[in-house]
Amino acid sequence: MCWSANSEADLGHTANTEPQSIFPAKGLKKLFNRQQVYFSSQAQIECIAPLFQTVAETPQPVQAAVLGTIPAWINGSLLRNGPGQFEFGDDKYNHWFDGMALMHQFKIKNGSVTYMSKFLESDVYNVNKSKNRIVVSEFGTLASSDPCKSLYDRFMSKFKIDSTDNCSVNYVLYKGDYYVSTETNFMRKVDPETLSTLEKVDWTKFIAVNGATAHPHYDPDGTAYNMGNSYGKQGTRYNIIKVPVQKSGTEENLEGAQVICSILPQNKGKPSYYHSFGMTENYVIFIELPLKLNLLKILINQIKGKAFSDIMSWEPDLPTLFHVVNKHTGEPHPVTFCAQPFMSFHQINAYEDQDCIVLDLCSMDGGGAINMFSLQNLRKSGQALTEIYQKVPKSYPHRFVLPLNADTNSKQETKYLNYSSATAVRKADGKVWCTHEKLLDDTLKYGIEFPQINYSKYNTKKYRYYYACGFQHLIGDSLVKVDIETKQTKVWKEEGFYPSEPIFVPYPDSAEEDNGVILSAVLTPHQEKNIFLLVLDAKDFVEIGRAEVPVKMPYGFHGIFLPQNSK
């Protein structure tokens, strides 16, 4: 087991002013021996193929073996989502994103942990299972033709494009109900207590969008905001969606949802792909990326037998655009903010300060990462796997400062905030060009992704800490805590294990930003070892406990912590 060499003093704290950890240290150093982390440039990276193989569900709770301490105040469930089945009969999926959704639950109560998992009983899963083949196309896999149909019917079926309800990306909350979500127009309502699949919900029945992201944002009162594209007579639009928190007994699902603003793409025939967006107290920030979707190729690819993923193209000659919209009035800000081309999947946080929007995100220079995550690549080993890793663009945390009232007279790049090196300058055409600040010091030599914060208290607010997965592999192989003020890091890493997205759970009624725990499902490709739920003290990033389970769990995407009293 490895630990960061950074001490609390490294994070700008002194021994007599640093608040004491909320966890007892007695006996823990003996159980979890702290060591320094030494990252070496390995000739080859470890094979992770078992983390991308079909597993059986665990529909009944299994008691986990606890090592160390699971704090008694943690009372709730870590819910995870991701692919769990990668073939039906002789048909095999091509891409990591394609596998059938498998929902996971680590339930924590009174210091003990149980684990269970269930496949999402989506329409797609059920029809694939009944036909024993892939019937509905996914992101990287085109469905096979029905062998029972005539040649003519099989040809005509190429002109029909079905949307999947394989909601394998995340858990989302609307009006007090929990759903699993992907990026199509369908979500599935689920029972987070039993992981039972409930009704299918179609966004198009409530508002004019053809899909929505799996990363909504929430106001403190529970009002939800999201984004989704629409394709119709008016052309392509990026739409900002608002879902009210109010719910009556007669209301149906997303009743009351509305589009508060529609944004025109740079090119109507080639809108941008996006996975998430930013939000402050008063604004939504949509990032129009140079990763484009060629709409004309959708039908052509269907006829040619190519998957949806083939319509994506990285166009580095285009800038990245930031669209700022007042979320209360729906009015777009009159200024267009621009930056050099980059690709981004996840924002860290955004807030307003001194008439500026501060937008923190993880970004990479190239747009080819998505297609690199084919199952064929992820299942490679030895030098072939190492070469794939070396080709994947690395993701780093960056800060952009968008001045809402940029100086029209200055022709030089200006720092608008005294605590950030990010700059902006207004050009002759009225556009404001922005350059980023690095949110990480140079001692960490690898990329990070899956960023998380103390969301319940610091979303849309100025903050100091974020947590993420470190990527010295194609998937996360460490957990990282970053102090934004000092740029220094703390790292948890254990060889042969791969942690999931770190979820912050705050200590009850604490006013300190990092007073709580980090929860992560830690997986391994080694058949003789168990997966486990990891619990870190978020303040000093020391492991205080783990709960081992003798099951296999594929590497997934996102999750949430659901306190027991929330449902």
Automatic annotation (TrEMBL):
<feature type="binding site">
    <location>
        <position position="275"/>
    </location>
    <ligand>
        <name>Fe cation</name>
    </ligand>
</feature>
<dbReference type="GO" id="GO:0046872">
    <property type="term" value="F:metal ion binding"/>
</dbReference>
<dbReference type="GO" id="GO:0016121">
    <property type="term" value="P:carotene catabolic process"/>
</dbReference>
<feature type="binding site">
    <location>
        <position position="346"/>
    </location>
    <ligand>
        <name>Fe cation</name>
    </ligand>
</feature>
<feature type="binding site">
    <location>
        <position position="215"/>
    </location>
    <ligand>
        <name>Fe cation</name>
    </ligand>
</feature>
<dbReference type="GO" id="GO:0010436">
    <property type="term" value="F:carotenoid dioxygenase activity"/>
</dbReference>
<dbReference type="GO" id="GO:0042574">
    <property type="term" value="P:retinal metabolic process"/>
</dbReference>
<dbReference type="InterPro" id="IPR004294">
    <property type="entry name" value="Carotenoid_Oase"/>
</dbReference>
<keyword id="KW-0223">Dioxygenase</keyword>
<comment type="function">
    <text>Broad specificity mitochondrial dioxygenase that mediates the asymmetric oxidative cleavage of carotenoids. Cleaves carotenes (pure hydrocarbon carotenoids) such as all-trans-beta-carotene and lycopene as well as xanthophylls (oxygenated carotenoids) such as zeaxanthin, lutein and beta-cryptoxanthin at both the 9,10 and the 9',10' carbon-carbon double bond. Through its function in carotenoids metabolism regulates oxidative stress and the production of important signaling molecules.</text>
</comment>
<keyword id="KW-0443">Lipid metabolism</keyword>
<keyword id="KW-0408">Iron</keyword>
<protein>
    <recommendedName>
        <fullName>Carotenoid-cleaving dioxygenase, mitochondrial</fullName>
        <ecNumber>1.13.11.71</ecNumber>
    </recommendedName>
</protein>
<feature type="binding site">
    <location>
        <position position="558"/>
    </location>
    <ligand>
        <name>Fe cation</name>
    </ligand>
</feature>
<dbReference type="GO" id="GO:0003834">
    <property type="term" value="F:beta-carotene 15,15'-dioxygenase activity"/>
</dbReference>
<keyword id="KW-0560">Oxidoreductase</keyword>
<dbReference type="Pfam" id="PF03055">
    <property type="entry name" value="RPE65"/>
</dbReference>
<dbReference type="GO" id="GO:0102076">
    <property type="term" value="F:beta,beta-carotene-9',10'-cleaving oxygenase activity"/>
</dbReference>
<comment type="similarity">
    <text>Belongs to the carotenoid oxygenase family.</text>
</comment>
<keyword id="KW-0479">Metal-binding</keyword>
<keyword id="KW-0496">Mitochondrion</keyword>
<dbReference type="GO" id="GO:0005739">
    <property type="term" value="C:mitochondrion"/>
</dbReference>
